[in-house]
Design a protein that fits this description.
Oligomer: single chain
Number of helices: 9
Radius of gyration: 18 Å
Helix content: over 70%
Strand order of the largest sheet: 1-2
Number of strands: 2
């Protein structure tokens, strides 16, 4: 299973890196949209929209939101990202109060509405990052999420004892969180050297950004875990061997990407 997990992750990574390296922003936006379509199907099913008519209506709504964001002025897009980030701040309370907050996850209208917010929000954030810093910035961000996941997985398996959030995700431990955090900070140093040319003046900013993104990624991971737990499923889908569904692979990205888009757009020294 571990070999299958690594193989599928590497295959996806190669495709994403190639897209970020060679595709111009409009085509890169279209590429990210393909991933969004898979995520929409899984989110709709988890939300309870299991009929063909329900999914088609939901997909049309998502397409309208994405099209509106693509055509909207920068100020509107930036405002939408801020709304998404405010939601993720509120999600901290939802995860903290789980399972008492479980009724939110079993409400079809609530979860469908949240999906319309967070999935287009993550797509828009990736597009904005590509505009701000090119494909390299998107690659750095996605690599940070992957590094944190790998660090958490191996450190958690080796040293994990105390559970981080047993009612939400029994497999996650404090040791795993530390491992993921250290990996994210190490990748923050790489970002400082690559984008700023040195660690000095802007190094602390890169480390701070890496720490914030890691925390946001953990929140996204726990939120999706609570969502799946409330629905009584282990994985959001089966499209990725060894991982489950697209949502299982990008749950951290859903929360961290909007945060990074706002940070990168407003903090000098993070983008060329």
């Amino acid at each position: 299973m571990l070999r299958l997990r690594i193989a599928s992750a590497l295959a996806l990574a190669i495709v994403v890196i190639a897209a970020c390296t060679y595709l111009p922003p409009p085509w890169l936006a279209a590429f990210f949209l393909l991933l969004v379509l898979a995520a929409v199907r899984e989110w709709a099913k988890l939300s309870g929209l299991e009929t063909r008519a329900g999914f088609v209506a939901y997909a049309v709504l998502m397409a309208a939101v994405v099209a509106g964001l693509w055509l909207a002025p920068h100020g509107w897009r930036n405002g939408f990202l801020h709304v998404v980030v405010v939601f993720w701040f509120a999600a901290i309370f939802v995860v903290w109060k789980y399972p008492a907050s479980g009724r939110l996850f079993t409400s079809v209208p609530c979860m469908a509405a949240i999906g319309v917010l967070v999935i287009p929000g993550a797509w828009l954030a990736l597009v904005e990052l590509a505009v701000l810093g090119g494909g390299a910035l998107v690659i750095w961000f996605l690599a940070l999420v992957a590094a944190a996941d790998v660090g958490a997985y191996f450190v958690g398996r080796r040293f994990g004892r105390a559970k981080l959030a047993p009612s939400v995700s029994p497999g996650k431990t404090y040791a795993g969180a530390w491992g993921g955090g250290v990996a994210a900070l190490a990748w923050g140093v790489v970002g400082a050297w690559y984008f700023a040319g040195e660690f000095g003046e802007f190094g602390v900013r890169w480390l701070g950004a890496a720490a914030v993104l890691f925390a946001a990624g953990v929140l996204g991971d726990l939120f999706e875990s609570a969502f799946k737990r409330s629905r009584g499923v282990k994985d959001s889908g089966a499209i990725m061997p060894g991982h489950g569904g697209i949502l299982d692979r990008v749950d951290a990205v859903l929360a961290a990407a909007p945060v990074f888009a706002i940070i990168a757009g407003g903090l000098p020294g993070l983008v060329p």
